[in-house]
Amino acid sequence: MHDADLAAGAGAVVLPEALARKYPSAPREWGWQWVFPATRTYTDPTTGEVRRRHLHETAIQRAVRQAAVAAGITKPASPHTLRHSFATHVLEDGYDIRTIQELLGHREVSTTMITHVLNRGACGVRSPLDR
Fold this sequence. Notes:
Elements (H helix, E strand, L loop, with lengths): L1 H6 L9 H6 L14 E7 L6 E5 L2 H14 L8 H14 L4 H8 L4 H4 L19
Antiparallel strand pairs: 1-2
């Protein structure tokens, strides 16, 4: 999609002004593109450039729900479910709660601690020596 956008004279993302000045070719480089780009483009009213935004969050939520149904998962599933699953797995792998807080972007460690693994007691987290 990005290659096709570049070939059509588009493919640039919006960067903060200072970055765009410092790295003038960055807006068209692969590393700056959206991981989940929108299916449609738009014309930037200030520059007249054809651009592509990110996929709307509801499209991601719908795709996760559809994947869960296709996999035969009967419980509700969302991207937030995947976030909790990630936190649970890294906690089970022995990561400390402060590292998980940083990975999830929580301001308060109390927010990170709201997970069922913490209620398992000392056996809820394996020691690296147990591997």
